[in-house]
Specification:
Blueprint lengths: L5 E5 L6 H13 L4 E4 L6 H11 L8 E4 L2 H7 L3 E4 L6 H7 L5 E6 L2 H9 L4 E4 L17 H9 L4 E4 L7 H6 L4 E4 L1 H4 L4 H14 L4
Parallel strand pairs: 1-2, 1-8, 2-3, 3-4, 4-5, 5-6, 6-7, 7-8
Helix pairs in contact: 1-9, 2-3
């Protein structure tokens, strides 16, 4: 992870590949650093097709494959993002190539500790604010998040209900960046939407 505060965008599983390609190209032009291909309903072959197609419009090194460690390894993309039902970080490391990142979704201090002990490269923590993708689930806020970032130096990316205006709160909690879903994937103008987040990230003057 670079010293630049990172903007991650996560696909929704609701868009066609053509729509995702248009969104990704626009978001990348607007300042997105990484696109997570999170397409749970798609086969390994379909996921590979997505990586290949998307790498024509944004760099392969900006693509992270959610869950499918096999696709991440075979494609040579930036890495794999693991969830509770994925391979363990140690198992994923056996499959991935040297230099490919391993990320993990966490929701508590205990989960963060386990993932960091397993030597992941970054964590995704959420959901921080009320989020349309998690209806009925209480948001976790930033208090526990700040405890995690104070305790460990692994980059932590905040997720869930983050708007450009709320970006400051997430960075104040010690995050290395933010992850956005519908705020960019559902935007009429993905480039402008990404730019608004990019400006909020770059404007922050904290430590």
């Amino acid at each position: 992870m670079s010293s630049t505060r990172e903007l991650h965008v996560i696909t929704s599983g609701r868009h066609s590949l053509d729509d995702a390609m248009r969104m990704a190209e626009a978001a990348y032009a607007g300042g997105m650093n990484f696109l997570h291909i999170r397409e749970k309903q798609r086969t390994a072959k379909e996921c590979m097709d997505w990586v290949k197609a998307l790498s024509n419009v944004i760099p392969l090194s900006s693509l992270i494959m959610n869950d499918r460690v096999d696709v991440a390894a075979a494609s040579g993309c930036a890495g794999a993002h693991l969830t509770y039902h994925s391979l363990s970080p140690a198992e994923a490391r056996m499959v991935l190539k040297t230099g490919q990142k391993i990320g993990r979704s966490v929701h508590s201090v205990v989960e963060a500790q386990e993932a960091i002990a397993a030597k992941v490269d970054y964590l995704l923590y959420g959901h921080i604010f009320a989020s349309g993708s998690k209806p009925g689930l209480a948001p976790r806020g930033t208090i526990e998040l700040a405890q995690i970032t104070a305790r460990w130096h692994v980059p932590i990316i905040g997720l869930g209900g983050i708007t450009p205006d709320r970006t400051t709160h997430v960075l104040e909690a010690g995050c290395a960046g933010i992850a956005v879903l519908s705020g960019i994937t559902d935007a009429t103008d993905a480039k402008s939407a990404a730019s608004a987040y990019r400006e909020a990230l770059d404007r922050w003057e904290g430590k």
